[in-house]
Amino acid sequence: MSPAEHIRQLFEQRLDVPDEAILAELTALPVLPDEEDPVWEDERTWYELADRFVALADLAAHRRLYSAIPLLLERASYGDPGEMMRGLRHSLEAIVKPEWHRLTDICIQMAQAPQRGARLWSINELGILRDPRAVPTLINSLDDPADQVRVAACQSLEMVCQRHVASRPMALQALQRYLEHHLHASDQRAGKEAIATIGAM
Q1: pTM above 0.70?
Q2: What is the rounded CA–CA span in Å between residue 107 and residue 102?
Q3: CB atoms within 10 A of CB 150
Q4: How far is CA 87 from CA 68, 81, 84, 147, 170, in A?
Q5: 3-state DSSP assignment of residue 2
Q6: Is the Cβ–Cβ distance between 78 and 147 less than 8 Å?
Q7: Integer CA distances (angstroms), 200 to 104, 162, 191, in order
Q8: I need a labelling partner for 94 at 20 to 30 A (CA). Which of 54, 63, 81, 192 fits?
Q9: What is the pLDDT of residues 153-176, one digit of tens each?
Q10: Packing angle between helix 168-181 and helix 185-199, nearest 10 degrees?
């Protein structure tokens, strides 16, 4: 059975399950391992964890389970194993569509979560949503202890500034400070690219 077939099977098996049971199963699901964790080399990790996570995300989208959004983010992997996590946005957005502000509110809150994966994918989603209310959160995330979160904050600031001119001066000042305090190559590259793009707008 292919991963897509397995996910579909898991989805269909739960079509008649009450919402409360779906949320309970999601709550019981462990946080997905970091992308660099060697456990991803074991097919059972994909079969028992990843496929179930995706199926539950699909179910939450199908039912528009607003309460599932923070649960999904809390269990998101730090990184993007098999390019699986980047698809999470579609489930989150389907749950709230067209009330995008509701997803912005949750992602702003989850950007402070203890789980690195939750912070990473919340920051990533805030860039996609392009709500200027997220700018202070994105600026704070430039000092996140996790390097992928910091880089995502640079990229999301750039995306918000594409739409909101008033956010550009504040973002540029924050990115300049970011370059002074974070000297890692990935930080420098992301910061300089964001400054160049925003400055050219």
Answers
A1: yes
A2: 9
A3: 22
A4: 16, 11, 6, 21, 30
A5: coil
A6: no
A7: 26, 10, 14
A8: 81
A9: 999 999 999 999 999 999 999 999
A10: 160
